[in-house]
Amino acid sequence: MDRFDLVKESFEKKAAEVKIPAGKTSDYYGELVFDRVKMHKYLDAKSLKALLECIDNGMPLDRETADGVARGMKEWAMENGVTHITHWFQPLTEGTAEKHDSLIDYDGKGGVIETFSGKDLVQQEPDASSFPSGGIRATFEARGYTAWDPTSPVYIQDDTLCIPTVFISYTGEALDYKTPLKRALKAVSDAAVPICRLFDPSVNKVYSYLGWEQEYFLVDESLYSARPDLMITGRTLMGHNSSKNQQLDDHYFGAIPSRVAAFMKDLEIAGHRLGIPLKTRHNEVAPNQFELAPIFGETNLSNDQNQIVMNLMNKIARKHGFVVLFHEKPFAGVNGSGKHNNWSLGTDTGVLLFAPGKDPNGNLQFITFFVNVLAAVQKHNALLKASIASATNAHRLGANEAPPAIVSAFLGKTMTDVLRKLLEVPSDTPIQIAGKQGKSVGLIEIPEIFIDNTDRNRTSPFAFTGNRFEFRAVGSSANCASAMTTLNAAVAEQLTLFKAEVDKELAKGKSTYVAVMDALKPIIASVIDVVCFDGNGYSEEWKEEAKRRGLDVETSVPEMIKDFVKPESVKMFTSTGVYTEKELEARNEVKWETYCKKVQIESRVMVRMATNHIIPAVLEYKTKLLKDIALTKEIFGDTSKCSYELELLEKINGYVEEIHQKAFAMKEARKKANVIEDIYKKAVAYHEIAESLADLRRPIDKLEDIVDNKMWPLPKYRELLFIS
């Protein structure tokens, strides 16, 4: 099939029928999850009590309890047609992994029986040799362990019981995203609780909450299959802009296309059956770009759900004739895709720590956590950027639809004014809610309807949005755990340091209120004019200003990654118990290696497409032009009547020669990079190759605008972006 056949086939597709379960959403919500309702139904009293203690309070599970839980799980699973189990984990590959084992075993009588024990539930030993370790595991050692994470519910996918697990080496080092995240969540709780108890002694635990916003593109699978760059790299390495893209914002405000709406409905049903609270769906700004988002949840669970949803999206999209693009910048000239991480902290007593309280004490608690987050972001702004840095996200950061590659915090006028006022008034000045308390001299007022009094700045990578912070720099293909681990760990370190300062003030005989305020004021003064920025993050002026303020302005991904092993980063991660120094060094190795491989693949694909797809099509068109010129000369005796064709020929020759030279130079640069043994230096070399991809793309895109449309071999942007 040629391109036009594919376009016709794609355009004629209709929305697939979606089988909608009977009843309300609440009737089937969570039916494929072994949640607390199932626990109460299928577990004996002893096993239930021990498991809930493990989930809620971190108590260990003994073998007897694990066996009891496994018996109940097995009964529930087999009632739902389960024949296999898998330990589902998140290795350092930016994806998930699973190895399925049947439930059967010999029965000792010549037949088989379905078995599932506590050992099967709690631990497996998959082949770890295929997963990157950064040197933690020697290449000849295949051993690795997966261990059940009881805080994330077991679920059923098709005929398989999926058990969320951590993934660790034989010697106990983390080989995944989940293990450090869980450590960071414990660290932030341990650091936050003592501060919360200054205001409420009944607080025993602090939870981290995450609400992700998953942006993505949908492309018709027929058109996708005709684009080798999309198939192999997830983005278009070449392609001239469509005459119309997103200028009119009509896609964002328009109705969801019928095929897409069917896909979204199918996805929601699948997510709800797995207990994933998908709530929001809508068009995004770019053509064929969309977004979905769930209700907020505990960070570890919410991150697991995001990974499950991404897998579901890939699977369900194919049922509807689509392919999902999670790449941060699959198309040049239109908005890329992010995954905003809306993050907050809350107590086990039901208090959101980033929302104003009901009295001066509660408001001081809010200000305390608010300011310490800013301090953590300022101290580790480069590290936070490193946590979201990747070969794919590099195409998005700094573009005019995404945050700049500078981590700053947007507060809005309300909170900026509050912080500046706090520096001016005595430390015993009460912080009241406007409208609830009578005004007094020096009163610090916070609007009662606080969430409606926060303005937005779409250029800010880390914005306060009413009762949470929105980390907007996270890429659409990323595992949220990377950003959430770093952020929660950085805040944990800062809260620990702050508590020590408060204790010093208390030791001087000050009241708790005054001691906290006196410890806060130096921090406010240090952050308000450094990390806090409410202006245009896209401007060149801000880049210069940020550099003067001491914020990190690095744009090279290999250089960003180095921040993980800087002394201040190592100190923060090790002091909070989130990473060992060995684990950090290993992750850097993995990140640099991954960067090299992704750029290497893009370079190979682009050169081959240039030589195997583009140049042959161009030469065919050139031959047609030459024939036309020859015929004109034969008829009219000279070429004066074909000046346009001659001009085209000259342009074509120039662009073809440019492609040849730049493709050759890229291959040679790749050869040189491939023999570099030091992985950091190799990544730096590949960064230069990544920068040159746009140079090779330019003459190809120019040719697309010249060559006969019938002869162009690849589906164009106007087809990829406007057929759904």
**What is the C-alpha radius of gyration, as a whole number of Å?**
29 Å
Roughly how many Å apart are the termini?
19 Å
CATH fold title of the largest domain: Creatine Kinase, Chain A, domain 2
Count of DSSP strands: 19
Structural class: alpha+beta
In DSSP terms (H or I, runs of 4 or more residues), the helix count works out at 24
Instruction: Please state the oligomeric state of the protein chains shown.
Output: single chain
**Under the CATH scheme, which architecture of the largest domain would be assigned?**
2-Layer Sandwich
How many domains, as an integer? 3
Strand content: 5-15%
> Average pLDDT value?
91
- Outline type: globular
**Uncertain segments of ≥5 residues (pLDDT<50)?**
435-443, 448-455
Structure explained in plain terms:
The chain folds into 3 domains: 32-175, Roll (Ubiquitin-like (UB roll)); 184-237 and 244-575, Glutamine synthetase/guanido kinase, catalytic domain (Creatine Kinase, Chain A, domain 2); 593-720, Four Helix Bundle (Hemerythrin (Met), subunit A) (Up-down Bundle), CATH 1.20.120.1560. The two termini are 19 Å apart. Strand 7 and strand 8 form a beta hairpin. The chain is α+β, with helices and mostly antiparallel strands. It has 24 helices and 19 strands. Strands 9, 10, 11, 12, 13, 14, 15, 18 and 19 form a 9-stranded mixed β-sheet that branches.
